[in-house]
Design brief:
With about 110 residues, this protein is mainly α. It contains three helices and no strands. The termini are far apart.
């Protein structure tokens, strides 16, 4: 709404990435294509990563505060081990301190 109003209707989000959230003919969901699309649109609407601005929403720098930490996306084969997910310290490696841990894809190992 902010960008559409300021640009006189030239820019805005028209759900162009939505089709990538549904399975294609082979049954797979092109999630990577969705992520690439969304990042491109987000950059067009609010600026590049680290410099995004909006009068409507605020942006949290994920390098300072990860509000959607998904261990299964970052550390394959963790086997439910909190140290392998960097949620507990290891020798020579401090633990990460996410605000929220999102257990998606952990197959009940949490």
């Amino acid at each position: 709404a902010d960008v559409r109003k300021l640009s006189g209707g030239t820019y805005g989000y028209d759900s162009q990435c939505l089709p990538y959230l549904f399975p294609i003919s082979n049954g797979l969901v092109p999630y990577r294509m969705y992520c690439d699309c969304w990042q491109a649109v987000l950059g067009d609407l609010s600026g590049p990563f680290g410099q995004r601005r909006s009068r409507i929403v605020g942006f949290v720098n994920p390098e300072r505060l990860d509000v959607n930490y998904v261990p299964s996306d970052l550390f394959n084969g963790h086997g439910g081990d909190l140290s392998s997910m960097r949620l507990l310290p290891r020798v020579g490696q401090s633990a990460l301190d996410p605000l929220v841990v999102h257990w998606a894809g952990s197959s009940g190992e949490q």
